[in-house]
Amino acid sequence: MEPFEIMKGVYWVGALDYNLRHFHGYSYTTHHGTTYNAYLIVGEKVALVDSVMGAFTDEMLSRLSKVIDPQKIDFMISNHTEMDHSGATPEILKMAPNAKLICTSKAVDQLKKHYEDGWDIQTVKTGDEIDLGGKTLRFYEAPMLHWPESMFTYYAEEQLLLPNDAFGQHYATEQRFADEVDQHVLWREAEKYYANILWPLSRMVQKKIEEVVELGLPIKMIAPSHGLIWRKDPLQIVTRYLEWAKGERFQDKVVITWDTMWDSTTKLARAIAEGVHSEGLEPILKLIPQSDRSDIIADMLEARGILVGCSTVHNDILPTAAPVLSDLEVLKPAGKKCAAFGSYGWGGGAVKKIQESMEKGKMDIVMEPFTVKWVPDTDELEQAFNFGKEFAKKVK
Length: 396
Ligand code: FEO
Fold this sequence. Notes:
The structure is a single chain. With 396 residues, this protein is an alpha/beta fold. It contains twelve helices and 22 strands. The N and C termini lie far apart (51 Å). Bound molecules: MU-OXO-diiron (FEO).
């Protein structure tokens, strides 16, 4: 396994996980696998910034050993405790017994609880630096981006930002730079990453980015801990994060996602989609049990509006729709314009449940729910069309 020198004296020594299809348990699908990026900075002293998932320790060591003897590592920098970036750290610290582990104070307990005690730990806070001999590494705490202990490492002389999970994508490829790969896949994976992991933390994302911008930190390259490295116009991903965090980036599309028992709600979804389309917006139709949940969430990030539908069973939603509603509640697409629709037999209940989830998600319900009894007739399908049309007018 070969290391890759991303700039003079800085080596990517991470691992490629081409086969990964689920991340964070089974909550996030990774159609393009992922990478665990670790960076070795070699000066008079040597620092390793983050490690990799434990199962990939050998792959990382085989790359790293081609640059230096692991014993020579002076600093093991842990930007983030999560196991995909710290799994190989115990092995590194075994091989480099004199290395100091650098992390924020909030990381100490986390690391000890994940692994073991007895490491030589030096805690750092924003502005603290270590000197590798003419190579300065400065640290910036980044709480809740996306764990409490997260931090960024900045290599000052080369203006290289190592922000760990921020600005990453789950995308395994032999290429290392963002400008070398399929741009559609790159941006889709960056969008999916933000929507599924960072969306509920948008306030913190905005605050941290504005803070960094205020510092006037020059940035020549951004090397995240997953996926591709941003070297051409690296601030483009920072700008995109800011737009996502503020909810200011829209495509002319409306996500319509639903589940159905006997196709009544599907008929409504189709009529509503035509209504949305009649106003020039693209309806993105996702039948929940046939769709990938984390892709639906990614579709929602830049949508102008979200419509969620369901049939009623036991005065409630179909259980198959529950995961999407749970995501709306916890990911909090705050301010996103939305409405509910559905069908029922004798007692309603599904649209009420959908609206409750939208309210918990701090979404902006712009219309009363549209619901029909049993099977929609011609008039009701016409009403559904008009519901979609009116919704589109409200969100355009
Ligand atoms: Fe890539 Fe928060 O771990």
